[in-house]
Amino acid sequence: MRAGEKIWTLQRIFNVRMGVRRKDDTLPKRFLEEPLSEGAAKGQVVELEPMLNEFYAEGDWTTKAGQERKRF
User: Residues 6 or more apart from 49 whose CB is under 8 A from it?
Assistant: First the structure.
């Protein structure tokens, strides 16, 4: 698990150095705008901002930019 976390972190660091920022962490437009037509989440669309905050918190990244690691 620790090795996987380090690999994921190094990938993120590389992407940040190449110019990837929070605005680039997105989903296809249809997930954000078109409500689901069936299933338990019928009528819902993805709320990206809360998901990004949780994603960055899980990886221990700052939620503001998604680019600075709090610890490594």
Answer: none
Q: Kindly report, residue by residue over 30-72, the tens digit of the pLDDT.
A: 989 999 899 998 999 999 999 999 988 887 787 665 655 555 4
What is the residue range of 37's domain? 2-58
Tally of domains within the chain: 1
Alpha-carbon distances, residue 4 vs 8, 13, 39, 59, 61 (angstroms): 6, 14, 33, 12, 16
Burial class (CB in 10 A: 0-12, 13-18, 19+), 61: buried
60 within 8 A of 9, measured Cβ to Cβ = no
Cα separation, 54 vs 57, in Å, equals 5
**CB-CB contact of 55 with 47 (8 Å):** no
Task: Using a cut of 0.90, tell me whether the model's pTM lies above it.
Answer: no
